[in-house]
Each structure stands twice: as structure tokens, then as C-alpha cells.
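User: Could you go from structure to sequence for me? I need the amino acid at each position, not a summary. C-alpha cells:
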């Protein structure tokens, strides 16, 4: 016997709905299942199941400030100043 259901009617921006639908389709979910997952996670978290951040506190990063690593046959190339001498575990893991 199927569980009883309740209907929720909500208004969303059509573009947001379409973008979400594409994401959920790729995950094999329909909109109803995705919303049910969100609601169940909210119950488990006893709140919103992801951090809410004031966008004004995030600051702005110019695209030119974002480093895109190069991938070579030797591995990923990142700036030398990213090497933290206190992170010996990474040096040991990637040494020759």
C-alpha cells in the first residue's frame, strides 16, 4: 500500500526550475524526489542542510585571480608558493 502524500505548490523562477531539472535528470531524480530529499535532509539537520552565507561577506574574486592548474604527464602543475613546508605528508606522498 502506497504511503499517503501531501501536495506543496510553490513558485520558482522558470530558469531556476529548468536548470534544477537538468541537474536532477542527470542524477536520475525527478523534481518531486529531489524536493523530498531536501525536506528529509532538513529534518535530519534540524535546519537548512547546507550553510547559509551572506554573499556580502564572501567578497569578490576576479577571474584573473583564479589559478587554473595545468595537467601534464608528470602530474598537476601548481604555483611554487602553494608548497607549504609544514605539509610533509604531501611531500612524502608525491616524492620520487
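Assistant: Here is the amino acid at each position, in order:
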Amino acid at each position: 500500500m502506497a504511503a499517503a502524500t501531501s501536495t506543496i505548490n510553490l513558485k520558482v523562477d522558470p530558469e531556476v526550475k529548468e536548470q534544477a531539472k537538468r541537474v536532477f535528470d542527470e542524477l536520475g531524480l525527478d523534481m518531486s524526489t529531489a524536493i523530498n530529499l531536501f525536506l528529509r535532509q532538513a529534518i535530519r539537520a534540524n535546519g537548512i542542510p547546507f550553510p547559509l552565507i551572506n554573499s556580502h561577506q564572501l567578497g569578490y574574486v576576479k577571474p584573473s585571480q583564479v589559478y587554473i592548474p595545468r595537467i601534464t604527464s608528470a602530474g598537476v602543475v601548481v604555483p611554487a608558493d602553494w608548497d607549504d613546508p609544514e605539509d610533509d605528508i604531501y611531500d612524502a606522498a608525491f616524492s620520487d
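One structural detail worth keeping in mind: Helices lie at 14-26, 31-45, 55-58, 88-93.
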